[in-house]
Amino acid sequence: MFSRASRFCAAALVVFALLAAPARASADEVLVFAAASLKTALDRIAAEFGAASGHEVTVSYAGSSVLARQIQLGAPAHLFLSANREWMDVLEADGRIDPGTRVDLLGNSLVLIGGPNADPVETMGPGFDLMARLGGGRLAMALVDAVPAGIYGKAALEHFGLWAKVKDSVAQTDNVRAALALVASGAAPLGIVYASDAMAEGRVQVIGRFPAGSHPPIVYPAAAIVNGPAAALEFLAFLQGDAAQDVFLEQGFTLPGE
């Protein structure tokens, strides 16, 4: 694993090389396809990069599975930020991304959320009576067979022997932010989302945390789509620098290897 310092140095070298190139007559436009869980942090980072570079960054958010399929079908994305490695692997196998630009950008953790008055879970494990806590309501989760947050959540529930008991009470959504919204609005009493999502929504609270060993490691890879503009590589490098990573950390993400 690379340290934060080594990742920053690599990013800085890319930025230096790009800035040393002949000046462009006009700013470039960069279209980023990004996992929905990145929205709060990435909106801030894209604005900061645009102000500093003059480039225009547009971000399209959805579940990683939806975005990957759109790229497979020829959507004009320049960067892809996925919430798991598997969907990036699919695009790499299809020759859609430049493998030399691929980097494990971020990590995250998985949490159980409830409304402001929900009681905390003392122990997240096989003895936890999740059905009783739902009280006849639904457990909000992203699509458990396609969207990374849902895949991780299902794996964690299976790890503790809870999935078979609760699967018929799951309300599946197209992405993790939609699951977050169900709990925030009171439509579902509980939900499984990333820690960063919980931090982005003041109407929910974390009532339990899933141990890292209960699900596959949560990794966000990023890569440039083939034949994109140079500005896409600049933005990818910016994402690995201290300014951007401070925003990610502030929003509840982690860095690989830390």
Automatic annotation (TrEMBL):
Position of the signal peptide: 1-27
InterPro entries documented for this protein: ModA, ModA/WtpA
Keywords noted in UniProt: Metal-binding, Signal
Family: Belongs to the bacterial solute-binding protein ModA family.
Name of the featured protein: Molybdate ABC transporter substrate-binding protein
Lineage, uppermost ranks: Bacteria, Pseudomonadati, Pseudomonadota, Alphaproteobacteria, Rhodobacterales
